[in-house]
Amino acid sequence: MTKESVTKTVESGAFIRTVVRTGKKRRQKTQRFKKSQKKVILGHIGDFEVYVYPYDYGDCIFIGKFPVSTYINKTNYKALFGLFNRMRWYLNGEWQIKPKNEKGRKTLRDNIASAYIHAQEEQQSKEMEGKTL
After folding, report:
1. What is the spatial distance between Cα 42 and Cα 40, in angstroms, rounded to a whole number?
2. Which domain holds residue 53?
């Protein structure tokens, strides 16, 4: 009785290819995905697709890479715009500017600053270890 062992799995947008070894023999299993005629791609954000199924899910927009994705509908699209504003705030470097009035003690700005400082200290400690060796 021989045992199968999966050695490598390659995923692409159109297929998943798995290489299976049984003893000295090797074979490939390929699972192909056909393009859905019901799916309309609105755009791409890096590797992620933004797409809709206008007939089946008329009130949802999907974001992700097939087969894993999340959806946005009428109830939670405002949260997406809020997230967009925070991303823009961060990427423009506005998190480094102190606000005129601080309402909360621990804010998102403080969390980002402490994470940044922690990463700097970690980098400096690694450099110091390299110099002492």
Report:
1. 6
2. 35-73
